[in-house]
Structure formats: C-alpha cells, structure tokens
Amino acid sequence: MGRDEQKEEREVLDSIFPDEIQDISDTEYRVTVNLDVNNPSEEEEDEPPNPVLILNIKYPEAYPEQAPELDVTQPPNAPKHPHLNLQEDKPRLLEALQPTIEESMGMAMVFTLVSTLKDSAELLISERLQAIQALKDVEAAKAEEEENKKFEGQKVTRETFLAWREGFQQEMAEAEARRVAEIEAEEKKKRGKVEEKKLTGRQLWEQGIASRNVEDEGEGEDGVAEGLQGLKVEG
User: Fold this and answer.
1) Does residue 94 register a pLDDT over 60?
2) Strands (E), the chain
C-alpha cells in the first residue's frame, strides 16, 4: 500500500516540478528550491544571486505512515550568499519542517515540505536583512540627531531668560545713549558753523557804504541847523 502511494505522489511531483526534480533511485530523489530574496536597500548591481537549496527526499518502506528521510544541501560550487550559510542554518531549516511532517502523517507531504522549506529559508534571510536595515536606521538616526544638535539653541529657563533680558536692556540703553550723543554732536556742529559764518567781501563793502551814508546824512542835518542859527533877518 505504501509503495503505491509513493509512486502516485512521485508522478504528481513530476507535473509540479518538471525542471526541478531529479531521481536518484526508485525511492530517493531531490527537488531544487529557488529562493526569492527581496532586498530593496541594496543597489541592483551589488545584489548577490538568489540562493538555491536542494531538498533531498528518501522514502522509507512505510511512507507516508512513516516520515520521509530529509536533508538540505546546495548545488556544487554554489555562490556563497551573505545572509545564508547552509552549514550553520541547516539545523534550523530541518527543524522548521517538523511541524509539517507531524501534521501530514499518513498523507503525501513532499510538495508541502518543499513549500515550507522555501518559506523558512526566505524568512530567515528576510530577518537578517531587516536586522541589518534596523542597525542602519539606528545609525542614521544617531547621525541625524547629532546633526540637529548643531542647530538647537540653548534651552530657556527663568534664570537664562532674566539674564538675557538684563543684557538686552543694557545693550538697548547703550545704543540709545550713543544715538542721543550722536544727535547732540551733530546739532552742536551745525550751530558752530552758523556762528562762525563770515561775511563775504561784497557784504562787507555794502555794509560800509551804508554806514557812510548814515554819517553823511547826520552831518548834513547838523550843518543846516548851524547855518540857520547864524542868519540874521534884516528889517
């Protein structure tokens, strides 16, 4: 009964994985599992090729009433992926298959095992990428915080405000005193110029002519009076 079910499952797997499945014997075969890794934080040219795993399956005589023998490997000379190390990660990947095996006892389970392996490996890589990105975010946040500190002013307290107000008022008083002193100096300068202003030669000449005319007029009047006094009226 078990052997018939094994053959039937194997035929179904041929139609599901036509290019990924390879027979080793009548009861043993391997399925290639291509992982999809999405890492938008890296530049496209720097992205390593997506890793490839191989799920090796060997049917025991009583399968599916008995669990299959499983192993996870990689193709020969597969490029090393920075976020998946099969030598270290194999125990975790095989352990992730155990719940599926226990839930599927008595039924064909290889297709589900392949899907579980793919999901588990992709999740493992995703967790590591997220951890790397989280570390980058923390470092970026620290750098931004340090940069923002350059633009932060002193925190205002009552003491610092009073000290600032006193200094500001003193500065304004000094500025007002300088302004008043400058205005007074300018006014004094203007008054000095008015007082020191000298008459031109023409003005001096004109003022001299006017003085002589006044003197002449005075002398003329006195002479006329004296002449009148000297006259005698004859009868």
Assistant:
1) yes
2) 21-25, 28-34, 52-58, 69-73
Q: Tell me if the bond preceding 64 is cis, omega within 30° of 0.
A: yes
Alpha carbon of residue 227 to chain centroid: 114
- What token pair was written down for 131? 């951890």
To 5 degrees, how large is the angle CA 60–CA 64–CA 67? 60
Three-state DSSP class for residue 50:
coil
- Say what the pTM is: 0.60
CA angle 195, 196, 202 (to 5 degrees): 110
Q: Could you tell me which of 55, 54, 50 has the C-alpha nearest to residue 81?
A: 50
Residue found by looking up tokens 């004296």 in the block:
226
The label of the residue with tokens 């006259």 reads 231
pLDDT exceeds 50 at position 228? no
Contact 83, 125 (CB under 8 A): yes
pLDDT in tens, 146-199: 877 777 666 778 888 888 888 888 999 899 889 888 888 888 887 766 655 655
CA dist 38 and 162 (Å) reads 58
Collapsed DSSP state (helix, strand, coil) of residue 30 = strand
Q: pLDDT: is 89 or 214 the higher one? A: 89
Distance CA 83, CA 126 (A): 9
Residues with Cβ < 8 Å from 107, sequence gap 6 or more?
64
